[in-house]
Each structure stands twice: as structure tokens, then as C-alpha cells.
Amino acid sequence: MVSDRLHHKHFNTTVELIYYLCVHINSVNIRYADTKEPRVKFLLMGVEKDQFSTYRKGTGNLMESSSSLDKFRQYADSKRYEYGYPDMVFLMTGFDVYSEEKDGTKSLNVLGIGFVGGLCTQFFVALGEDSAGRFNGMHTLTHEAGHVLGASHDESSPKSWIRGDPGSLSCPWKDGYIMSYVDGGVRHHQFSPCSLRQIQNLLILRGTVCWQLSTSNNGHTEPGRFPGMEVAPNEFCKSVFPDKVNVTADMRSDRMKECMVKCQYPEVRKYCYGYRCNYYTAIKYTYEHALDYMYCGLNKVCVRGVCKGSAGNLPLRPVARSTTTTTTTTRTTPADDGTTECRCDCSSKQPTTRAHYPPRSPTPTRKYRWLGINRRQ
């Protein structure tokens, strides 16, 4: 993995960075637990703390997604020997990734981008945003790695450059699995049956020479450590509302048993009638998916979106998502649903065509989307 300057500056030592990435990957591996024949398990083989980001296209704290990914591909390909010939290279960035729209404007609604089916080829890269120390890039890493392993967005046609690709037309976008942008509750942490078949197809196509681990390289691991053990709930919510003060997590919320964290902050409002003014404290909040092993009840923790105290089968029950405002003086609850149905525009006429998605809003202040790059192998 490559950690750029705006990302790795958060960590005092390289050891701290490696530990953080290993914990990150532990959560990613939980989401790949349903893969089989072969089973996918990621292993961190090395980390580069990049100071200069010569592959970055953009000004200030911005990174243009498509052109930066192309340059990062060349950068990583030139370092294959130095990296130890990895199957995949992922750039974890602290820059704000954006895309250029047809009208020339910059859209900041981007979380990550990667090459579909690029595993063990010269297109073996992806990149994604992460707020260092908060683990909020874990789902992006899972999603973009899925692209590199051959999974298209759900409800997509087979990719012509991947031999035998079954596609994902039979898995509705609205079901809200990992390779969709709709929040399907528990399914948000699982791959659809179509994605699992696509990943299996590509791994068999590439063969064991691609992905079989050398017995001489054990990589870096931190067994038994997960993000919810590392980040306090209040700190987690601060990454949801980074520009607000007095942000807290309401761990007594009824939806905590659904592994949905209620992140909230107060906002003082002034209402004047004639010569008299009243002040009201409005509590604004939204619900976010809990980190793995975040407490959700007495002796219970969240694992892949399920609150449980021991191993068991994961239910497939969708959870609604909402953004609401309440007041502490005159209480009101004007609900504002934060979920949007997203359309998929996955054209494969050009190898470099991007899959664009109108954003859904995980917070009231910022919207996101993923981009998938289609590249002919």
C-alpha cells in the first residue's frame, strides 16, 4: 500500500502506520469471508510513505481521479520489483479526490477509483480517500479492491476484456450490496452473489501464479484487532461532521442494536418575535454504520453490520438510513432521508469509460460517490 503525505503525516512512526493499515485490512477481510474456491484474504506486504505524490493531478488539497489513477498505475508499475511484485497496489490518500464533469466543473463527490479486473496485470491499482486514524476509508478499500478483483457494480453487463465474466445483471442495484451505492443495511457489508461469481471467475482466470502467497514472505498482520477497538465513538462521529464542534455519539440510541451509530451535534438558533427573542438548541444528527467491534450492547459488538456476542449467521435485513433534526426546547423532527437511489451508467464502449453515480449523502454537509474505471486487459 502507498500512503501519501497528507495521509501518513497523522502517524508518528512507520510502525503506527503499518499497525493502522493492518487493522484496516482485518475489517476488509471480514467482508471477503463469503468468497470461496478460492477464498480471498488480503495480506499487507509492504508500505510506502510517499512524500511527493508525483502521480497526483490537481491543485491544493485536490486530486483528480482518472488522470491521477493513470499516473499512479505507471508509478506503481515502475516499482514492482521494489514492492516485491504484489498482486495489487492501493493508494490511501488524504487528498480530496474529485472528478471533472462534462461542463468543466469539479465534482468532489468521489471516494475512490480503480481498474476493473486489473489484478496481476499492469492495471493492478486503485486509490481511495481515508481520514487517517478514523478508518472511514475501509469500505472504499473493500469496494475498490472488489473492482480490481473483477467485480463490476451490481446490475452491470459482462466486461468484454475479462474472459468468462458472468456480469452482474441478475443482482439488482437497489439491493444495496458492497458493489452498489444504495445502502442495503446489513447487505452494505456483503458482496452480492454476482460479485462473488465475478471475483471467483477472475481469480481462476489469473491462476495461482498470480495470487498464491510465497511461503518465504509472511507480510504484516495484527490478528484480532479491529477498528472499533481503536476509535472511540465520539472520535468516530467527529469524522462524520469534521467541520462541527461538540460532536458526540449517542450510544444509547435504539438503532445502536442495528449497528447504526447516531452522530450528533448541537446548533443554537435564535427566533425573535417583536421585541422578544428566544434561543433554541437544535440537535442535528445522522446515522452511520458502526465500525467492526464497536460496542452495541452489553457484551455485544458489531461485526459486519450485525450486533452479536458470538459467531453466527449474518441476517440479511435492510436498515433504513435517515438524517434528522430535533430541538431540545421546542422539539421538532423534520425527517430528511439521506438515501438516494443511484443510477448506473456503465458503458464499456471505451476501455477508459467511468461508471458515474449521483451521490448519496452520509452526512448533511458532504456527498460522496465511487468511480469504477473500466480498462481492457
UniProtKB/TrEMBL annotation:
Q: Boundaries of each Peptidase M12B domain copy?
A: 1-215
List residues binding Zn(2+). H143, H147, H153
Q: Recite the UniProt keywords alphabetically.
A: Hydrolase, Metal-binding, Metalloprotease, Protease, Zinc
What is the top-level taxon of the source organism?
A: Eukaryota
Q: Name one GO biological process term.
A: membrane protein ectodomain proteolysis
Region entry Disordered, spans: 318-377
Keyword set includes Protease: yes
Looking at the Swiss-Prot or TrEMBL record, what is one Pfam family this protein matches?
Answer: Reprolysin_2
Any one GO MF annotation of this record: metal ion binding
Active site per the UniProt annotation: E144
Compositionally biased spans, kind Low complexity: 323-333
Alphabetized PANTHER family for the sequence: ADAM A DISINTEGRIN AND METALLOPROTEASE DOMAIN, ADAM METALLOPROTEASE
**What is the name attached to this protein's record?**
Reprolysin
